[in-house]
Amino acid sequence: MSGKERLLVRGAQGDLLRLVATGHAESRAQLARVSGLAASSVSLRVEELIDTGLLVEEGSGTSSGGRRPRKLRVSPTAGLLAVADLGAHHARLGLLDLSGVPLVVEERACDIALGPEATLDWMASAFDDLLLAHGPAGVPLRGVGTGIPGPVDPGSGRVVSPSRMPGWNNFPVAEYLGAHYDLPVLVENDANLLAVGEARSWPGFGNLMVLKAGSGIGCGVIVDGRLHRGRGAAGDISHVRVRTDSSTMCSCGHPDCLEAYASGAALMDALSGLGIATRRPSDVVALVENGVPEATALVRNAGRLIGEVLTVLVNFLNPDAIVVGGSLSTAEPLISAIRAAVYERCLPLATRDLEIAVTRGGPDAALLGAGSLLLDAVLS
Ligand SMILES: [Zn+2]
């Protein structure tokens, strides 16, 4: 199995490595232009990075058309990142190289209700399995990251007042994983990871609201191409109060939060009350697709309530797109109800070029987002 090793690069070296890893530069000239460093200084540091085996140069030599420019790439042996996206009942886990390219991604059943220690120990042993089976010999693990389906304090990496995660409140996830791995650790809200990963699929869209509609309901906000964390809870729309005929108490102790009506967990509870059993949010989508009217009505109502919350946010932030992901996102009535509410109620200037669409980034978007943020942590 591969070992683990902290990546030791100095500030400007780390910046150059990051620019190559993220595809922002692939030559010394581009590095100088993008970083603003002097060409001589860039050349010196690139040579050091090549000497230490972190960068490689490809395409050197001549071709029939003359000398081809040499391309810088992060070495495939520079290191691995182990990343996970924890859900209520399943997790996606993967190994990425330092350029964020997945070597392997797996989905496994898990149960976060078992509590933080059991879940994080399970995750560590799943990472061990992946490293054993897919980690190239001699390539060290450089960092570990995970998405959490609840609010995360970015300073401490603690989970703060999550819903449906018994035992997790105030648990120091980053500290726990850090003690196990002794490597840079990223702990981030799952909707934020999805937003960062999804943003890669929306070039030219600098401002995004990325909704994650699964067991819970969350939103990640991208402003000017970067994740907006605020104090840590930016984008958390789960406990916004909504307008309804009935009154339902939310797990947070307040009545009529969005989550109490529009999350996958709430929809499953409501269906259960009607005698319709479901095991996970995707079962709700299947019921909608099979034309079960109770499910369709509940999902449409969820979309309307989400849309009403988003109208305020769209008027306020004026995003370029609202992107809807998570396991409920494939339910067509959810998206149409969100669209109807937002287009009807928002200012014309705010909706003129606004796109409302399902995710483009594919099932691994959150893992790719984790890789991108974890690389920042590894290089800082
Ligand atoms: Zn609440």
TrEMBL record:
Question: What's the superkingdom here?
Answer: Bacteria
A Pfam entry, by short name: ROK
Q: Which PANTHER family does this chain map to? A: GLUCOKINASE, ROK (REPRESSOR, ORF, KINASE) FAMILY
The similarity annotation says: Belongs to the ROK (NagC/XylR) family.
State the name under which the record lists this protein. ROK family protein
